[in-house]
Amino acid sequence: MELLICAVAGYFFGCFNTAWIVGRIRGMDIRTKGSGNAGASNVTITLGWRWGILVAAMDIAKAWIAVVLCRTLFPGVLSAGAAAGIFCILGHIFPFYLGFRGGKGFASYIGMMLALNWRITLVLVAATVVITVVTDYIALATLATSWAFPVWQWYAGSPALELVLLGLLAVIIFWKHRENLRRIRRGEETGLRKVPVRAKR
To answer: What digits encode the pLDDT tens for the residues 29-40?
Structure first.
């Protein structure tokens, strides 16, 4: 029952979609622009780095808060934090009030990792930066991180249920990025070097 509560709480935290709110503030549905994704990467590409950083920070924070809150409320439940974090990411990807069309979950994934294991998160974020700088595509770094973290958690001896959920989440994130991979293969993906610094008017 405790894990179910954590999962439900995490999902509703994830449904707070900052990208969609920012889009509304700017007079648009962000899902009709750029990649059609209601997340930090599309906000960055569409509106510039300033808005993108704000959205990313909020998405990181909501997952971190969900994990820490559930760990605090249920200190005796081994996977309480992981359940909250995983379902927060799922809420971000599949928000019920947006027709289950949300973001791709990477910023919230970072928030979950920070709360669960900040040391390995620093390593993976550094690797993400390197991969992004070398390839110019954050999608590739996202996929690498979403698979590397479950492998690390397996090595660290995390419970089987947590590993299964992280594995399923990695599959979902891969599926959400399938169009990015196709665009990269065709040379049509917008690289971060082409992102505007200022928001478009």
So the answer is: 999 988 788 988
